[in-house]
Amino acid sequence: MLLLTTCILLICSLSTSLSFLANATPNLTLPHQHPDPEAVVQEVQRRVNASLSQRQMLSLQAKDQNSACLTGNPIDDCWRCDADWQNNRQRLADCAIGFGHNALGGKGGQFYVVTDSSDSDPANPVPGTLRHAVIQEEPLWIIFAADMGIKLKHELIFNSYKTIDGRGVNVHIVGNGCITLQYVSNVIIHNVHIHHCKPSGNAKIRSSPTQAGWRGRSDGDGISIFSARQIWIDHCSLSYCTDGLIDAIMGSTGITISNSYFSHHDEVMLLGHNDRYALDSGMQVTIAFNHFGEALVQRMPRCRRGYIHVVNNDFTQWEMYAIGGSANPTINSQGNRYTAPGDPNAKEVTKRVETDEREWTDWNWRTEGDIMVNGAFFVPSGAGASFQYAKASSVEPKAAGLIDQLTMNAGVFGGPREGSDTPSTSTPGFNTGGTTYSDNNRGSGGGGDFFGMIFGSAAAPPPPTGSFGEAMAAKLAIEEAAFRKIPSITIEGDSQIILMI
Q1: Three-state secondary structure of 424-440
Q2: What are the strands of the beta sheet with 261-263, ordered from one edge?
Q3: What's the rounded Cα separation, in Å, for the pair 246 and 199?
Q4: Using the 8-state DSSP alphabet, how is residue 354 labeled?
Q5: Which of 439, 425, 430 is nearest to 464 (CA)?
Q6: EC annotation (predicted)?
């Protein structure tokens, strides 16, 4: 009888425990997420304040030749004032901030010089091509021999520990699939144009020197981040893709998206796979010093779960909303400038997607030091709406002029700033031109010394000489103007030399 009673009690206890587990929200964490996201936020703010203070101090002293180069942007001020930056390229890897600040890229590895813009066989990439570079196993710092337009045949699948460094040349990546960062870590993508990306797949694509596999159809994202970590995207210009410009899903974390220029797109940025994917609760993303520009509609970003820090960005256009979310993400908006559209029904910065107010009232959406222009307004909630939180914050409001200053070079250096007459400032020794590039800038790639061409990990080759020239600039302006009038661009066959002059 005692045994029977004991068994009944055990069964009841087990039943209660299982019922509790079934109804509880699991507290899942990712192995590489930061245990204290607020500390990362405070460190970002400290870095910004330190750079602004240094710039102000040197300007007042007027004794340092670098004072005119400093902008107060801690990423750019970390490397751009170095007149010998071309021989210290890997210093860039020490300049990241936010959740992706540990992204090493190809730091410590050899330089790989891309000499061939072709992408004829994704299953067997030609040495000297970008595809051949990004699939290698070892850390590589990838640079380009000249200005280049790369039309991808299928998605470009990266291996870990790679840096794409487009400084000193003008590189456009377009075509099918575009960039895929799947199950990888430590990738830096810097100073390249990514646009007109279309779905592709159902093809064999190589992802490492020893493995080529069948890939299903891709979405047509500019950059797709899938179960990846320690990713830094900086000074890129993205537009006109079929799906998102940047999507990060399936438990990706440790990501910084900075100094980039987004334009001409509907669903700009998605962070989180779906509302039910619990591992995305560990997603941590910093979005800093970006310019969200012309002809954008929504998702800057659209968040599911996770912790998203949106700091010192310039939002100059949206049609529906700027920042949206579902499934209780934490959104920390600090020191941004939000300029609302003329539509009186689209003034709100925020949108809780398909969620009743009774549910989202406890979500932690904060606004601190944000600048609201043309009737824009941010609806905070949770801790972000409380007086106690605001009083405890160490973030001081930034003047509108500082937003201009911090985002003045967003996008590819020297690239066009649509809707702006203000050119980017120059960098000592920084040549944004290079020889005129074209879709004919291709070859076998086998004859060039593209791999480890120098130099070990300390120095890089001299920058290419020459410039775009007035004719190229004029043609680029005409084509960009034409793009603004066309809802979508179809690039087929050899006719796709759209920005590959």
Answers
A1: CCCCCCCCCCCCCCCCC
A2: 148-152, 171-176, 193-198, 237-239, 261-263, 291-292, 314-315, 337-339, 371-373
A3: 14
A4: T
A5: 430
A6: 4.2.2.2
User: DSSP per residue over 160-190, as a string?
Assistant: SSEEEE-TTS-EEEEEES-EEEES-EEEEEE
Residue pair 172/438 in contact (Cβ under 8 Å)? The answer is: no
Q: In this predicted structure, what is the pLDDT of residue 420?
A: 43
- Give the residues across from 180 on adjacent strands: 157, 224
Q: Is the pLDDT of residue 500 over 80?
A: no
pLDDT tens by residue, 55-114: 888 777 655 555 678 999 999 999 999 999 999 999 999 999 999 999 999 999 999 999
Kindly give the pairing relationship between strand 203-208 and strand 211-215: antiparallel
C-alpha distances out from residue 106 to 75, 155, 165, 185, 463, Å: 18, 21, 10, 11, 19
In the prediction, which pLDDT does 400 show?
55
Between CA 45 and CA 397 the distance in angstroms is: 11
What pLDDT was estimated at residue 5? Answer: 45
User: For the chain, what is the mean pLDDT?
Assistant: 80
> d(Cα 310, Cα 301) in Å, to the nearest integer?
9
Cβ within 8 Å of residue 284, ≥6 positions away: 33, 34, 37, 40, 99, 253, 254, 255, 306, 307, 308
Do 255 and 287 touch, CB atoms closer than 8 A? no
So which residues are the catalytic ones? 299
Q: Order of strands across the sheet with 350-352?
A: 156-157, 179-182, 223-226, 246-249, 269-271, 302-304, 323-326, 350-352
Interatomic CA distance for residues 249 and 251, integer angstroms: 6
Distance separating alpha carbons of residues 317 and 192, to the nearest angstrom: 22
Residue 384's pLDDT is what? 77
**Model pTM score:** 0.81
- Cα–Cα distance, 416 to 264 (Å, whole number): 13
Using a 10 angstrom Cβ sphere, with 0-12 exposed, 13-18 middle and 19 or more buried, the burial of residue 87 is middle
For residues 419 and 293, is the Cβ–Cβ distance under 8 A?
Answer: yes
**CB-count burial class (<10 Å; 0-12, 13-18, 19+) for 82:** middle
Phi, psi of 233 (to 5 degrees): -115, 120
284 falls in which pLDDT band (50, 70, 90)?
very high
Give pLDDT tens digits for 335-385: 999 999 999 999 999 999 999 999 999 999 999 999 999 999 999 999 878
Percent of the residues in the chain that have a pLDDT greater than 70, as a whole number:
72
> What is d(CA 475, CA 500) in angstroms, rounded to the nearest whole number?
10
